[in-house]
Amino acid sequence: MVDNTYIYGLYVLSDKDKTIRYIGKSDNPKKRLKRHIYNTKYHIKNKKKLTHKENWIIKSDFNIGFIVIEECKKDKWQIIEQELIKKYNHLTNTSKGGDGGCGVKYTISYEDCKKYVKKYIKSKSKSDWYDKVRNKLIPQHIPKNPREVFKCSWVSWGDFLGTGKICDNYVNYLPYEDAKLIIHKMKLTKVTDFKSKAKEGLIPNNIPNRPDRYYGKDKNRGWLGWSDFLGCEITQNQKKVFYELKEFKEKLNTLNIKKMSDYRKYCVSGKRDERMPTNPLTIYGRKYKGIRWQDFLLLH
């Protein structure tokens, strides 16, 4: 386990003096830099209120870089970050530091937070949690990024949400052939049938809810495709006839689907039109390079 982390500084690439304009902490500054840029673009696109740092990034035309100011122990970074923020002038930081990027100090403990989340928020998955965050359904006293805030106490999303689910890498699932025999007896004919059963909690605990990821991640685990796993012939996407892009957009508009998360729910509802792909970005991306989910919402 790596015990060190990094205090980094952001600067404009064209600045020969590399004047630091923002100071932060990350175990992976290079990855964090990309996240700063991505978040700024995302906030612009969704007309969110921009921070002082994000306005600076925009003014810099997103041409920013990072330098590591100091490498330190993970239990010492808060104090070091705060001292560095005091030292540098003209920073875009709006807090004194030591908050782990959240800018808010939470007083609730990990255990109390878990109890509240299980009783009142009732999220069933990490993706559902962040859907609630985006829809502003998480109270102010509950951290929106609990894994970061409670990093010293964090166990897993299953533990935090109270679902009991454990990351696939830590579960001793059945071998592929044994799991396949059990699934064959369920007589499922479509991938969406399997996903619906998984969502209802009707897949045995010793079989992963995402078998394609678990068994397919390692070639030695035996994954041969959904047709083999379910024991039925599934028509590959290349052989299916989907709506043209314009018709697909019109269907989304008719169904009043605005978000990708809503489309996923529609796909596993059992009511999906077979000519609407479960993975539209992949299907339409073959013809329209660089297509995004937002493009599906534009009728013209």
Brief summary of the model shown:
This protein is mainly alpha-helical and 300 residues long. It has 15 helices and three strands.
Question: Which descriptors apply to this entry?
Answer:
mainly alpha, 15 helices, three-stranded antiparallel β-sheet, 3 strands, globular, 300 residues, GIY-YIG endonuclease, 42% helix
Would you mind describing this structure in some detail?
By secondary structure, the chain is mainly alpha-helical. Helices cover 42% and strands 8% of the residues. It has 15 helices and three strands. Strands 2-1-3 form a three-stranded antiparallel beta sheet, with helices on both faces. It is globular and about 65 Å long.
> What quaternary form is this?
single chain
Main sheet: which strands, in order across?
A: 2-1-3
Mean pLDDT: 84
Class computed from helices, strands and strand pairing: mainly alpha
CATH class of the largest domain: Alpha Beta
The major pleated sheet works out as:
3 strands, antiparallel
Please give the CATH architecture of the largest domain: 3-Layer(aba) Sandwich
Q: How are helices and strands ordered from N to C?
A: EEHHEHHHHHHHHHHHHH
Number of helices: 15
Provide the gyration radius in Å. 23 Å
What proportion strand? 5-15%
Named CATH topology of the largest domain? GIY-YIG endonuclease
The general outline is globular
User: How many beta-strand elements?
Assistant: 3
